[in-house]
Amino acid sequence: MNAIEVQEIYKAFGDVKAVQGVSFNVRQGEIFSLLGPNGAGKTTTISMLATLLRPDQGDAQVLGHSLRQDAMGVKSVLGVVPQEIALYEDLSARENLTFWGKMYGLRGAELKIRVDEVLELIGLTERAKGRVEKFSGGMKRRVNIGVALLHKPQVIYMDEPTVGIDPQSRRNILDSVITLKDQGMTVLYTTHYMEEAQEISDHIAIMDHGKLITQGTHAELVKIVGERDRLTLTINAESERVLDTWRAVDGVAQIISENGTLNILADDSNLVLPRLFDAAAVEDVRITSVEIQEPNLEAVFLHLTGRALRD
Amino acid sequence: MKAIDIALKDLTSSMRSKFALVFMFGVPLLVTGMFYFMFGNIASQGEFSLPQISVVIANLDEGGPKFQTNTRNIPGGAKADTMGELVVGILQSDDLAELLDARLVPDAAAAKAAVDSQQAQVAIIIPTDFSTQFADIDGTAAIEFYQDPTLTIGPGIVRSILTQFMDGMSGVKIAVNVALDEGGPANYALIGQVVQQYLDESLAQSDDPETALLEVRNPQTRAVDEEQESRNTLVGIVTPIMGGMMIFYAFFTGTGTAQSILKEEEDRTLPRLFTTPTPQSIILSGKFLAVFMTVLVQVVVLLVAARLIFGIQWGGLSSITLMAVGMVFVASSFGIFVNSFLKNTRQGGVVFGGVLTVTGMLGMIGIFAMNSPTAQRLANSVSLLVPQGWAVRGLLQSVNGQPVADVLFSMLVMLAWSAVFFTIGIWRFNRRYA
What we know:
The structure holds two protein chains of two kinds. By secondary structure, chain A is α/β, with parallel strands linked by helices. Chain A is built from eleven helices and 14 strands. Chain A is elongated and about 80 Å long. Classes of the chains: A alpha/beta, B mainly alpha.
């Protein structure tokens, strides 16, 4: 059964077409990631699904509540973790959670119990009375997530929750996302970190320029590029000097030059790499660095868009 | 209920902001306190304390026909053999000692030199024939008055004293002429009595507080009620100032608190609120309610604090309550109205510095024109063009003990302003977040 069903939603800001006909389904109890570079339209999509923006066209159902027909119904089953920290810095962690709990309709003993539970969940029971303005970035992120969990939502949206935090806090957040899934929550997660999407997601949709270019499980997506390895090389000369020569090398499926780096999709790196060295030597060019990656989402994005995901 | 939760959250934030607290409570009380101590000295003495007026006298009077005065009527009880000595005696009397520093110089040149060199403010030159001319029925007795042209107050006071004296002397001469006309040359005894009596009465006038040009009070004789009087004077000075400060900063608080709507938008907490199952109307109502509550707390605290610290009497309870309610509504709705036109908090600085200061000063212009009835009438009319002016009007009506109906009218006008501001503000904010 689908928790979220998105049908051909569009959104434009003036002449900028931010989202163009995006459709996807998220099954109940899974983690679904929207993966794409900055400006791909992930946040606009999630903002529409959170009722913050009204789609120009199309609709979506969240646990049967239509965005257009029943926005309040959508809000009642949702927890939203925005990309930016959205907390009251002059209030303590407990005061923040208590306030937001009230906004989700919690009162009295139930509210107090849930605030205590969430403080425990995000590991800030000891710092409950501390003002948020005194917290580290990671601690703020945890409170930011905690707010969305107060009313035990069935569906939770997390918009790039790991941006700008230290590795330890990032690890904690990823673990907590998996814990939420284990508790039966449906998570719609956006990120531009391929590794995150790869690690936690049941299904992944890749977005670029406002369009959803592909979706599936990690395995399904990797199959798009076959069993090809991704090679990233840098040389001591202009890339144009070897581009044509290397394209002609047997086993090279695709080669793209970007910012002084050459990204190559190759059938078998063990066979192709020596040939690339030989071809470079003929052109009197030295290879200064080599990176080999097994098939992954980065390669998929490169294959489908001709650009690296991290741009 | 959620609206109240939002309002209480905002109120808590405001009360935790040192900056907000300083502007809400500290500055109005501090400014009033400064005026309180500034005027405290003046009010405690009941009048302005003038420095002693330096006077030099060249008494060249050579005397004339023997005349006698009742020395008890000469201030200081000095014995005077000539009219010149009589003038000197008056100016050097103990009663005028605090006001005048009168000393003798030998001649007119020395007297004028003292003024020219600014060692004295006034030089009085009594001519050699002063007594003779006074005794001559057809003569004209005159005193030369020489002053520093850059000074006004000190010489003016000395001139007043001398004019009073000379007017008295003129009356004596008129009385003598009348006695001679009616009694004839043979009745010198009667003329002498007339002169004596007129001279006594004339000199005695300076002791009459009802007719004296310059009242010289003896500080030791003042009673305790004068202390109360001076305190009332001081409170009378600081009451409109405190009221003005309260109104001025209530509008600042209204605008500053309403700006939290824009701040929450920038901090992304407002969009997050919109993702909760809370209708937008409730969220905005909560934000508006926070503005009203914050201004209400400020006004109540300032009214009570001013009463306790400065002893300000704000008027009857019903009057001041009506006035405070009107002010809270108009200051809050004005803040919502102004902020609804702002794109972001960065524009707030311009608004705070511009709109609030200009309208605030216009509204209080009547307070600063109180010493001139004409200017005050004009200022009062101009001030009513802005909501602050109506708040000042209501406050002064309450303080002055005007009928409650008058205060009620001012309050209703403030509520009318509020309705307009609030309607426009709500409409603009709803459209912004639609």
